[in-house]
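Issue: copy button drops trailing tokens. Both records pasted manually instead:
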Amino acid sequence: MKLLLIHLLLLPLLVMAETPNFQAWQYVYANGSPIQLSLGHAAPCVTDWDGDGVKDLLVGQYTGGMIRLYLNSGTNSSPVFTTFTYLQADGVNIQLPYG
């Protein structure tokens, strides 16, 4: 009975939910070229990594299990990425299991 009541209460929320509207994909550039990984498996994350108020780009890459950090030298609405560095701990590249 409790489960039925929960479903009945949630049903209006599901009916009112809107269909997502996704924008067309686009490349993200660094140094004027699209960011590409050797196998194309990427796990991007956008966050203000260095605390300067501008969102930076982190990209986990399948090959080697390392994480690239692209610092944004532009703005949040017009990001500018140049080169990347790998995330490190105690001077050693962080490597996550992959494969």
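Record 2 (pasted manually too):
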Amino acid sequence: MPSLQEAMQQDILINWTPHETRVAVVEGGALQEVHIERALERGLVGNVYLGRVARVLPGMQSAFIDIGLERAAFLHVADLLSTLNARHAEVDSPTNALVLPIEKQVFEGQTLLVQVIKDPIGTKGARLSTQISIAGRFLVYLPQDQHIGVSQKIPQETREALKKRLTDLAVAAFAPQPTGGFILRTNAEDASDQELSDDLVYLRKTWVRIHEQSTKLPPMSKLHQDLSLLQRVLRDMVSDITQSIRIDSKEQFNALRSFGEAFMPASVSRLQHYTGERPIFDLFGIEDDLGKALGRRVDLKSGGYLMIDQTEALTTVDVNTGGFVGAKNFEDTIFKTNLEAAGAIARQLRLRNLGGIVIADFIDMSSLEHQQAILQEFAKHLQRDRVKTMVSGFSSLGLVEMTRKRTRDSLAHLLCEPCEACQGKGFVKTARTLAYSILREILREARQFNPKEFRVLAPQGVIDMLLDEEREHVASLSEFIGKPISLQVDPALGQEQFDIILV
């Protein structure tokens, strides 16, 4: 078992290929988080372009903007910066409010700094805004605004103090230039002054680079792309406990080092190029852990196990003692299993990226002292989660309810799709159930049609059932309808599929 110091040591492993980037966060020798980005699934939202107005449509109060993509992008008057400023004016002084029509704000051939706010879908081009926003780890920077907003999920009583902290830090980081506006994200509530300052420095450098390029590059140039997963490793994942960041691509190692030297110099010393012969994920057992993270059952070292079921509405985790009988009495067995499960559940939430409502069904404990100890252990492990969580105590039914903020698709949703046979139910009808459905369907069709023969196409197991255990029922039905029934295996059909051909 790793010591406390070892458990707090973190290594980040990066497996890169041209089509996919995978990042594994390992602490104390155990996989804690997995992040995956696929090149073909990466959108355009957040990208900043120097666009050129191709056409203005007064009737639709919109304009088509050429940003160098296959289709022109779409800009509505509601997303123009001048319109947004007019709305602010309306709030401050309604008599001075004036929202100009789009044809009085833009003209064909004009160059505009624009940002993608919605990816192109089908035949529709991307949607744009002239209000630029740059996302950081804790902040969103609005360089054309002076407003400071706070996430609604941050408690009201702490908002003003948080805004005051940010204002003081921004003045120092952006001096002597104007600070612009900011939105404090939910996770900024627990950020230190140093973390906020690091974010401010990154955002300022990013905006300076965008502004400089907008004065040098021709129209239809891309000025900024939202950070890739590789870059977000340095911005979002590196902490004081990070020992190393190992990447198996020399090209990407050099690119990441250049990015780090420009924006996150404190993280560069941790970068390492992995040159081993074995794939980096195989060497550290990550592939095996990924396979296990897609299963329902999670075995505990004590012999107990978890059963994890994910639905649209919530995730349930059931704790079981299994074969654990090591304690002196049953109450101690239950307590020790629950204690180990508390840490395992917290890890599985991070590893599988399970968000929304989570219900943990620990094994029933009669001792209130034991219940409190389990909650404390659970809370301790959840503190390591970079995603915001909230836990309630044991309910009257002995369940622990909690929420975990949804930040991206869960691992299962990212890597898997519903089974064609069961359509995501997790189970399929038995061969006998399908056999009886077939017999009912033959009887139904016999009342409407008058073929020479009914030919049944079904999977092997269903045909075997009809030929063996249900052969008397098939014969009785054939005699009743006065038509022969032939049976044929079709391997292309799924477990719950069949076809009846009228010959």
